[in-house]
Amino acid sequence: MKILAFLIFGMFIGIVNGQAFLVDEKTFTHAGNQLRYDALMEELRCLVCQNQSLADSGAGLAQDLRKKVVAMIENGNSDQEIKDYMVQRYGEFILYRPRLNYATVMLWFGPFVLLLVAIGVIMRIVQSSQSNHTSQKVSSKNKLYDDGEHS
What we know:
Structural class: mainly alpha
Order of helices and strands: HHHHH
Oligomer: single chain
Radius of gyration: 31 Å
CATH topology of the largest domain: Helicase, Ruva Protein, domain 3
Number of strands: 0
């Protein structure tokens, strides 16, 4: 009897959890609005999940943000106005492709700077090891030459 109760409880929890992650579908009267909505959902990041778009997230905040985007599209706001609102409210992190500005310059160019620094360090190490190897060769030849003269 305990096993049956446990199985029923497990099924109930599975059903509830499965429903919690259903993404609400919104249908627009104008097909262009649906395309805009879909594009925006892929460009905006879920702040709770952080590695999922709003389209993929089942978090409560993501559902609220999707509803807000729907309302803004229906009010006639442009995509840029919607993004500006989201950035103003939640910061640049909400965008998968943050804008280039003073705060994000290292995000955009930091990897290239680090790559150049790494290449410079590797070149310096290689040159140093080559010069050490060459100087050791020359000193060993000189030592053999010097030993040959004294005999």
